[in-house]
Request: fold
Amino acid sequence: METATAHATHHEHVHGHEEHHHEETFLTKYIFSQDHKMISKQFLITGIFWGIVGGLLSILFRLQLGWPNETFPFLETFLGKWAEGGKISQEFYYALVTMHGTILVFFVLTGGLSGTFANLLIPYQVGSRDMASPFINMLSYWFFLGAGVVMFFSFFIQTGPASGGWTAYPPINGLRDTSVNLGSGLGFDLWILGMTLFIISALLGGLNYIATVLNMRTKGMNMFRLPLTIWALMFTAVIGVLSFPALLAGCVLLEFDRLLDTSFYLNNIIINGNLLGYKGGSPILFQHLFWFLGHPEVYIIILPAMGLVSEVLSTQSRKPIFGYKAMIFSILAILVLSFIVWAHHMFVTGLNPNLGAVFTLFTLLIAIPSAIKVFNWIGTVWKGKVRLVTPALFAIGFVSMFITGGLTGIILGNSAIDIQLHDTMFVVAHFHIVMGVSAFFGMFAGVYHWFPRLYGRYMNETLGQIHFYITLIGAYAIFFPMHFMTGLPRRYYTYANFETFNNFNFLAEFISIAAIIVFAGQLIFVVNFFYSIFKGRKVAAEKTVDGHDYANPWGTTTLEWTSPIERLHGNWPGDIPTVHRWPYDYSVNGREFIPQDEPLKPGEVPHE
Amino acid sequence: MSVTLSEQDILKEKTEYTGVHPQKFALWIAMASMTMFFAALTSALLVKKGDYRSWENFRLPTVFLFSTITVISLSVCIHAALISYRKAKFVQFRWLMFFSFLLGCLFLALQLTGWNVMVHGGMTLTENLSGSFLYVITAAHGVHIIAGLVVMLVFLIHAVRNRKDPIYELRDIINPKRQLNLELLVSYWHYVDAVWVYLYVFFWLNYR
Reply:
């Protein structure tokens, strides 16, 4: 800090940033980086790692669900006692399901998605040299990594990782007794520790994102000139900052129950004929605290994807976004509603039906802003000169997935129907399509679209398109049939004892095969990603100013390409560009696009 | 090209929209977040108090009233420290910071005494939910106090170590970094103090 102060004093009169001559070591550049672009890459690559792990876990339990009577000897080779005789054990099956949910919801689609694109796009697109506090930003990544290390470690302890469901419900998770559930021992303590670190990471990141967007915009960048990506990422951060503390509070109380025998969530528990001393608690209390985060969490996942898709669709179809302000107010409406719908996850907990009706009403209201957004995306693409490159394909795929998954949301939002469908494969199908697959599509659209900004190279287009078609067709093949598994309960290890479910055996096998193919398809992406970092086609310079090469590969209006191809620390070698217009001037005034930093011509009427 | 672009460099380029220092703004957002945390805990208490028939009310130990007075004095004291810093009265500033630190420690001691009183009255951590909530919420608040004390201590050590250096603090008036850090610290303390006042009133209303 002392040196920082000295430097700051030293550079009091220096405006540009070429004057710095700090030593750049491997450690400061790649490991303890405070540069938003490097932190973005760190989040992305960590997210990809977790994506592979989370996906692999699902393949393992799909083996069990698809072929419950088969044995796979290679599993024993890799998993040892968790798959004795080549069959995944019941305990490990539940651990797989639990960790699959935890990893994908939090580590990939929250940390990996928000962390990557908020870090990359916010400073670039609002016109700022870095985040409000680069140091806190670095801490955010390190807490994220630490959370991951703790979670990963829990796979290698004797009692295995948490296995009581990603929702961490007590009472099963409220007791440390491993005779009740193996994963409720040390594994779950590590889960709580990992989640606590993750929540800290999300909060540190979130407050930085909001402060940067609201306080560090460049000249001329008023709020209604912000790209929709920034709106979405900012509102995402707002949701996170206000809802994650509730989960933290819930986890604190849960850990007190586990370690210090309080009774916040436990009441009259009998184990092996012994009445334990817990009295007065209620597991429903945990569900309220959990879902107060848990529901907003799905918007934390989907809003960044929506923002990325809006930007990609507008850019790649060379048309202004349809209904810019409607998009913003829709996100705002989703933000507000996301906080008052949590109990729709709890219709079967004995919730007062009148209260259930209120939550049903608010839940169904979310369909309105969602439908507005879908309409606007279609309106954006409509009659546009769509360039069917990989990011555009994924963005269109997102819209398709979001519609498909959204429709079943209307069905499930009704308490009367939800009571029948609760905890069945229908629910699994719904949230995987609307939140899991959709968010992945948005994320892929973003990665393919902004890869040149991250690395100065393109990803391979052919591999990208193969990846897209496998993922689109495969994801539908996995999740569409699940809608028809009427009444099939989720989270079951085997359905062998229920004759009535035998007719789903074919579907289960089909889904498992599709899942394996889709997972293999994602490896194409991984190969493409890492290959392109080193060997991808380079972004060609369109002009060179003061020794810096500039390009604008997609012809975007936003500020990120006003910065040189090379990722400079501080983003712009000279002054930060001033903004004169809204971000969606595509195909206007006889031009394909007009960058935001181009002044208005005399007599030109600005969009807003 | 530089690596350690300092925060000063980034913030130097003011824009027409920078009404508030971004880091102050970030602290306010953090406060909103912490508010949600305590709101979640206290509303959990209300829910349980409403649906648990064997909820045992007990008299809130009087010592918590003294801790409330202590945090209010702390807020006054640390704010006075900020004012003397701005007026470049550094000796006075160091003493006031020191007293604030002592008051913070006193607050923690009083909280522990409060717990002690409860334990001796038979209200242990696991005795009844009513007690459990009070312990957990005061502990969660105590963690925030400890965090503030650590930062305060670091700040104080810097001030005391450099007391002989005639331009150390002075330089920081020219360079607003240290003053900013002090302002952030003071805001944080006002916040955690206000949270305690809220918690005290909340407990006082719920435990009698």
Chain A has one domain: 39-269+277-576+578-593. Chain A touches chain B through 73 residues (CB under 8 Å).
